[in-house]
Amino acid sequence: MRDPKRVAVLISGRGSNMRALVGSSKGYEIVLVASNKPNAEGLAWARACGLSTWAMESKGVGKEEFDRILNEALEKRDVGTIALAGFMRILSPWFVDKWSGRIVNIHPSLLPKYRGLDTHVRAIEAGDEMSGCSVHIVTEELDAGEVLGRAEVRIQDGDTPQSLEQRVLAAEHELYPKVLSKFVNR
Ligand code: GRF
User: Fold this and answer.
1) What class does CATH assign to 6-184?
2) Which residues are CB-neighbours of 75 under 8 A, at least 6 positions away?
């Protein structure tokens, strides 16, 4: 059994949640930052910090084929837990099953509300009072696994999806490290 405190963060873009996980890593260690986009902004930051990184373009590669190669990289680093942080790719059933119960994700809504994309637009259009973010276990069904923690953010008059996103993102950066630390030390 691998040490759950050895965490890999998977990103596809700017990686602000990854930076928060690195910056507040208490109770776990980020042993790998991996990406399906070799030019991801967050990857350059991770490299500059001296973190171990891995990247391979996923476009044009079969879903499971990519995941098997990614899996090798994770095993090489003795990863015990995977934290998805803006990883814009659906993982194959093979991968999710292999890592069952050991993959977590941060999602910008109060799950089970608004699974999938465009969460801020949907929350504003619905006239919701509260939005927020959730950390959950990844299962085969999109954004549907057990919720480990949530943070609420009030929707203000005149909020745009962008202004709401900014405040929710700040809440994500606080919530994710705390929930991850609790999860790997449970
Ligand atoms: C965040 O909003 C996160 O909730 C969602 O994707 C976005 C990633 O942003 N899963 P960043 O790359 O962490 O800045």
Assistant:
1) alpha beta
2) none
